[in-house]
């Protein structure tokens, strides 16, 4: 970034140069130049030896051209390869081990029934779940695999998932023993294995300071490595409001780390004040430590995007729907990350429709498609599954597979479709938010809404991907919540907001009476509810058409 440092950026630079600030945490909002700030800081100290830890190899390579030569720009895996990984080079180059062979090696010989009337788990599925448990352990800061690393099977109750984890632990420890062998191992050795072995050695890296980017989504194994470097100055930057990978075991290290100095970067250079104001609605609900300031020259707007460059969805199933709609409209869609995830979902659905078991992680618990329908209808937490069921029942797996087969590369696309998770780190000029971001449910007894923190963060990530036009279509409902007083801060799980009305479905559109009358629907609608009328900024005209 060539401009003069902002006041906030200068504060970060000054703290970095201060000998009495050994540990610094910087909260940097979307598009606020966090990586550029680190580069400016490092360039003020050319005689100190530093380490910049990047999220992936591409970022590390790019950083090498911007940081001074005294800063080693690496990924965590490249740090671990020299002292540990190189000894396992032969195993890294080894072939993929078929699931049947993994099951035989671990000792899974017959199906196991864990959960009531749901499908038994086949030996190959048990082998896959065991390796998933091992993978969670590899990303943890723990010393050995345990039940706390157990995978979650969709459709299982919490008790069933705990029972499954307890059952898998002995097999996971057998797998871990095999993975530590330099020679003669039977299982596929991955890069995460040598990173874990490196972490278990408690290394001290010979540098004067360590710069850690994207610290809001850090694996515990990486957080542990960073913690060990207490001989050096440590600076971590990130955006706690974008900590969206908790489901993979990532942690917000910025919130947990004891810092000598906490600073913020709130001036976004990605978009103008209009989109910044929209992002701040979600930061308000999250009770985040900063609010964004837009960049007026960006010239952004919040409103309809007739032909958006990108459409962002909550789920893979929602992405399927958008890809199918784009294809039916004559547009050429691309899908961020490719169509493999969707293809596997459609193939798994076809297996269940045919009465055959499937090994797909999201559907492995079900015996047939009827069980999937039942689970989706009864479980409020199965929102993503509900979208999938609707798509499969309306279009069939064959049609979905045909559409996936017609996907094009992003360079050739008329529109890019992505889940919000896969859109993180990306940006487009015109962005539309799809309709599968579900509004929080209202408890009919307490009349209170539970806003799940993970969902609020995902919404914030989605609305901050736009540079020019944000069509917030699927997240317009935020306006109700930000207009109400929040009576409790957001806990790790959810925030409680008072007396939020249950919005009426679009299908219940009807004509209201006067303000003193109840509307003609089966229940008070969003605009006719007295609590809404008391707080809404403008009165609703009698006889107004709404829904």
Automatic annotation (TrEMBL):
Residues of the UvrD-like helicase C-terminal domain: 413-470
Transferase as UniProt keyword: no
TM segment ranges: none
Keywords for the protein's UniProt record, in alphabetical order: ATP-binding, Helicase, Hydrolase, Nucleotide-binding
GO molecular function: 3'-5' DNA helicase activity; ATP binding; DNA binding; hydrolase activity
GO BP, one annotated term: replication fork processing
Domain of life: Bacteria
Protein name, as recorded: DNA helicase
């Amino acid at each position: 970034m060539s401009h003069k440092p902002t006041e906030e950026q200068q504060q970060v630079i000054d703290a970095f140069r201060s000998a009495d600030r050994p540990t610094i945490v910087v909260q940097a909002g979307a598009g606020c130049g966090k990586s550029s700030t680190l580069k400016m800081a490092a360039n003020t100290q050319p005689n100190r030896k530093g380490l910049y830890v990047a999220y992936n190899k591409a970022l590390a390579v790019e950083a090498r051209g911007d940081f001074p030569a005294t800063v080693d720009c690496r990924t965590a895996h490249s740090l671990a390869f020299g002292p540990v990984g190189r000894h396992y080079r032969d195993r890294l180059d080894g072939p993929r081990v078929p699931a049947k062979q993994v099951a035989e090696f671990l000792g899974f010989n017959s199906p196991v029934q864990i959960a009531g009337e749901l499908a038994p788990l086949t030996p190959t599925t048990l082998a896959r779940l065991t390796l998933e448990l091992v993978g969670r352990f590899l990303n943890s800061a723990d010393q050995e695999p345990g039940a706390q690393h157990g995978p979650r099977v969709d459709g299982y109750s919490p008790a069933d998932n705990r029972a499954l984890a307890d059952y898998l632990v002995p097999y996971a420890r057998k797998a871990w023993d095999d993975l530590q062998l330099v020679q003669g191992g039977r299982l596929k050795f991955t890069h995460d294995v040598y990173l874990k072995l490196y972490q278990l050695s408690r290394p001290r890296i010979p540098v004067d300071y360590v710069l850690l980017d994207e610290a809001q989504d850090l694996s515990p194994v990486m957080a542990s490595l960073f913690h060990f470097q207490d001989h050096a100055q440590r600076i971590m930057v990130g955006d706690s409001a974008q900590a969206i990978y908790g489901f993979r075991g990532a942690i917000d290290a910025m919130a947990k780390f004891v810092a000598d100095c906490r600073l913020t970067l709130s001036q976004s250079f990605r978009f103008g004040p209009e989109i910044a104001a929209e992002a701040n609605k979600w930061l308000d609900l999250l009770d985040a430590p900063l609010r964004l300031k837009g960049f007026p020259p960006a010239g952004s707007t919040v409103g309809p995007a007739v032909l958006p460059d990108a459409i962002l969805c909550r789920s893979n199933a929602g992405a399927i729907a958008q890809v199918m709609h784009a294809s039916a409209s004559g547009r050429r869609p691309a899908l961020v990350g490719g169509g493999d995830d969707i293809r596997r979902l459609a193939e798994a659905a076809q297996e269940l429709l045919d009465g055959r078991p499937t090994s797909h992680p999201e559907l492995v618990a079900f015996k047939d498609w009827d069980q999937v329908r039942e689970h989706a209808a009864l479980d409020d937490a199965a929102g993503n599954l509900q979208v999938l069921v609707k798509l499969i029942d309306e279009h069939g797996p064959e049609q979905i597979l045909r559409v996936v087969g017609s996907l094009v590369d992003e360079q050739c696309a008329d529109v890019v479709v992505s889940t919000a998770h896969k859109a993180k780190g990306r940006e487009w000029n015109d962005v539309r938010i799809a309709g599968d971001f579900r509004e929080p449910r209202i408890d009919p007894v307490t009349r209170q809404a539970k806003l799940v923190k993970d969902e609020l963060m995902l919404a914030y990530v989605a609305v901050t991907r736009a540079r020019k036009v944000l069509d917030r279509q699927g997240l317009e409902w935020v306006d109700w919540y930000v207009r109400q007083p929040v009576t409790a801060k957001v806990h790790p799980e959810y925030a409680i907001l008072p007396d939020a009305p249950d919005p009426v479905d679009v299908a219940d559109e009807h004509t209201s009476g006067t303000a003193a009358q109840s509307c003609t629907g089966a229940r008070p609608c969003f605009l006719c509810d007295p609590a809404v009328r008391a707080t809404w900024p403008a009165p609703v005209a009698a006889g107004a058409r709404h829904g």
